[in-house]
Design goal:
Arc Repressor Mutant, subunit A; 11 strands; four-stranded antiparallel sheet; five-stranded parallel sheet; 2 domains; Rossmann fold; alpha/beta
């Protein structure tokens, strides 16, 4: 039987990787498996798959960084990429799609949904036109390289401050309560309280203060926080 597509499955969790691969083989696809980004990139360069299924959390490199390497490779940038993550309520979804992923599936994997999204990805061309940067005012966020700059000057943010700024900046002028920010930016099972948000907001403002952009991260009394250029 001629395979329908060549698919590379990249996931460090053996059980999940085997489950997805088994189903794809049942459908007639030719499937290879890798557990880390470096071996996945080598395999992709060798076989030029039609589609890569890639988890956001890999042991040696973030999934979106592997995606960035793929999109920058002339031989691979036309490959479709379906990202997976067990962090459905976090900014993983936003980052993956803004980084050029073709689609996203949350874990635990629902097989009928997974198959439907695989089919949809294979029916359309790869998403190679997605912008790698989000800008507001003088702030620019490179969502592929995870870099932040203000007026062209680099700002070093910890991963959580980066995710918090990305979420707020991607939803400008919308007010989010502490509980909402906790749900969207933190792991669902993270043992932290809502006041953790206040601590990270203060850190974020202090890092933006030298450029004068700390005033964009605004407190809305009695409601929460927002990112707005209107001050």
């Amino acid at each position: 039987m001629t395979p329908l597509a060549i698919i590379l499955v990249v996931d460090s969790d053996t059980a999940t990787r085997n489950m997805m691969s088994h189903k794809l083989r049942e459908l007639g696809h030719r499937v290879s498996e890798r557990s880390d980004a470096s071996s996945a990139l080598a395999a992709a360069r060798q076989t030029c798959p039609d589609l890569m299924v890639c988890d956001c959390s890999l042991p040696d490199l973030a999934g979106v960084e592997l995606l960035s390497d793929v999109r920058c490779n002339d031989d691979l940038k036309g490959m479709r990429v379906l990202m997976t993550s067990d962090r459905e309520e976090t900014s993983d979804v936003v980052i993956a799609l803004e980084s050029g992923a073709d689609d996203f599936v949350a874990k635990p994997i629902n097989i009928p949904e997974f198959v439907a999204r695989i089919d949809a990805c294979l029916r359309r061309p790869a998403n190679v036109h997605r912008s790698r940067a989000i800008s507001a005012g003088g702030i620019t966020m490179d969502v592929v390289g995870h870099r932040v700059s203000a007026d062209g000057h680099s700002i070093s943010l910890a991963p959580r401050e980066y995710s918090l700024l990305l979420f707020l900046l991607s939803n400008q002028d919308r007010v989010f309560s502490r509980s909402q920010l906790l749900a969207h930016v933190w792991d669902r099972d993270a043992a932290v309280g809502v006041r953790t948000i206040d601590v990270h907001i203060r850190r974020l403002r202090s890092l933006l203060e030298p450029s004068g952009y700390d005033e964009y991260v605004q407190t809305v009394r009695g409601s929460g926080y927002r990112f707005s250029l209107l001050v």
